[in-house]
Design a protein that fits this description.
This protein is mainly alpha-helical. It is built from 6 helices and 3 strands, in the order H-H-E-E-E-H-H-H-H. 36% of the residues are buried. Belongs to the SufE family.
Length: 141
């Protein structure tokens, strides 16, 4: 039975165990880990997530061996949203399609982010995860 990738589980636990007053600071550190768009990839190749308050685009690719690669595009002036992408980029690196699909939909609530950021932002993060999982599901067949 697949489960959430170990790296993502560790990130979730780290946030869940952190004192409330440092959660936002920890979250914003992930805004810096979003890699730039790969060469040859254009924003037009990605799916927009309209639930986000800022322009946010993503794509998931499932390789023949079942490994998932994620691509995110989000402006630097939207650090919270970029942080959601950073957590997924780092936490899902090298994950299988089954592991990605096994990520709980309430990931950000489990991390304790609902107490640290606005419900609107949590909804945006949840929408990012949902679209990512949908793309993986469609490709994994």
């Amino acid at each position: 039975m697949p489960e959430m990738p170990t790296k993502l589980a560790e990130i979730v636990e780290e946030f869940a165990d952190a004192p409330r007053d440092v959660v936002l600071e920890m979250l914003l550190e992930y805004a810096d880990v979003v890699p730039p768009l790969p060469a040859g990839v254009d924003r037009d190749d990605l799916e927009q997530v309209p639930e986000c308050q800022t322009a946010f685009f993503l794509r998931a690719e499932v390789a023949p061996d079942g490994t998932v690669t994620t691509v995110f595009d989000c402006p630097p002036e939207a650090p919270t949203t970029r942080a959601f992408a950073g957590i997924l980029a780092e936490g899902l690196a090298g994950a299988s399609a089954a592991q990605v699909l096994d990520v709980p939909d309430d990931l950000y609530q489990r991390m304790g982010l609902a107490q640290a950021i606005s419900p609107l932002r949590v909804r945006g993060g949840t929408a990012i995860l949902a679209r990512l999982k949908r793309q993986v599901r469609e490709q994994a067949g």
